[in-house]
Design brief:
The protein is mostly helical. Helix 4 crosses helix 5. The chain is globular.
């Protein structure tokens, strides 16, 4: 069982949630090289590793939730599924 988040973790989550909400959704956050999602997460969480933590986050969230939240991702995955089989 996971321990409850610490206050700094809650503040970081709140800050990142605000970025997503202000942009109009998670797929609209990427508005530049310095403001790409991974750059924003790294700024908020200096120990973040895109290649380690990113896949772990995707695994924890689940593909169904990501597809429901990100229509462009869903369309891309649907097209890949169509082509494969």
């Amino acid at each position: 069982m996971r321990s409850p988040p610490t206050l700094p973790e809650c503040r970081t989550a709140s800050r990142l949630h605000h970025v997503v909400t202000s942009a109009g959704g998670p797929e609209l956050v990427n508005d530049g090289v310095d403001t790409a999602p991974s750059k924003r997460i790294s700024a908020a969480l200096p120990r973040y590793s895109k290649t380690i933590d990113g896949p772990l986050c995707i695994q924890e969230l689940g593909l169904a939730k990501l597809r429901a939240t990100c229509p462009h991702l869903d369309a891309w995955l649907t097209e890949l599924e169509r082509r494969v089989g």
